[in-house]
Amino acid sequence: MAIELVPLPLPQTADAEKFKDFGREVKGVHPGNMSKAEREEIHDLLYKYGALLFRNVDLTPEQQYALTKEFDPSSENYGHGNNKTQADAKSILHPDLKTIPRVPQVQLIGNGTVYNHEGLAEAVLKHPSHTTFHKTRVSEEDTEKGITRFYRWHIDAALYNLKPPLVTTLYAKIVPQGPRQTVRYDDGTGDELEVPLGTTAFVSGKTMFDILPPQLKSVAVRGRVKYSPHPYVWMAPAHALPTGLGIMSEGLEMPDDELPPWEEKLVKVYPILWKNPVTDELHFQVHPCGVKELFIDPLPEGANREGAMFPDGAHLTDLKQVRDLLYKMQRPAIAPSLVYPHDWHENDLMLFHNRGLLHSVVGAFRPDQVRAFHQCNLAASSEPVGPSLEDVRKYA
Ligand SMILES: [Fe+2]
């Protein structure tokens, strides 16, 4: 049976035109048992469409690990490292991650208490909630009415020492039923988005770049971001914006000398735009919460300087200035019409291009709403590739 592709079920809120090339449901193949030809086809489809959904899949953690590894055969460690260290204990990711004992690269995430699950006698899971991360929170009253927030827009990556995973697999084992919720952006725009309970929200990094005005495209193509050492420890004392797209600048980040031991050579500096290895397209791939500094190269020789921002280049170190500029570039792409909120069904497997999109946990569960997902991504064997000289000339 040949591989068949079906567009993802877009909600009414989505601008279908913008999702023409984003996301496909894949039929006619089992992701845990593919021939070499099928694996090659799925590889290219993933990079072409960014997110592939397989429905009604039975997948062991071993198969999920093998599928994830297929995209980067020499990668072995979970994207945040396999070994829990002192540094992890202080990280904001710490409570969200539980490892499947047989396959430590696969994490069990979700909500409520799960029993006898893949070798775990009992696992207490907690769906991350904006209430512990954002500066402001939705009132109890509005929460009752189903109002919620995006938790944190991100790339799955340690952003220190380890290289950002190429792909993430997210497999829904237990999905609680419940009424739909409404994401409120609470950033003064009045934007809202109705979503299924416990959705995972996706936005395209390609669209994030494509919709920018020329001046900001020029900044993006010339820009590099420097992440903090141990970014998830660094940001732990700070609070996020109500859209989950970055941190409020209140000076609360952990000072460098209080962080767990770190080395400058392991700090990550990445281009703002990452090149898709199959389509050659540019994707705006910045995890805004972890960024500390921004470098912008000067305009290339012969470029039109009229109206250009930072024509002679810049090195921005003021956190608020860095964050405001990134927010200006990233916020347009999380507009309600550009978000794909996946409506999870049990045994859905989502395979996504972690270097081509941003995603966010969404919503809030009660403790009795049990949810169990298996997540796998692997620290990559090579770094992301930035824009080519040709790209710089084209967009600068
Ligand atoms: Fe994630």
From TrEMBL:
Keywords: Dioxygenase, Iron, Metal-binding, Oxidoreductase
Cofactor: Fe(2+)
Residue ranges of every copy of the TauD/TfdA-like domain listed in the record: 21-376
Keyword hit for Cytoplasm: no
Molecular function terms from GO: dioxygenase activity; metal ion binding
A Pfam family hit: TauD
InterPro entries: TauD-like_sf, TauD/TfdA-like, TfdA_dioxygenase
The keyword Cell cycle is assigned to this record: no
Protein family (similarity comment): Belongs to the TfdA dioxygenase family.
Protein name: Clavaminate synthase-like protein
Organism: Lentinus tigrinus ALCF2SS1-6
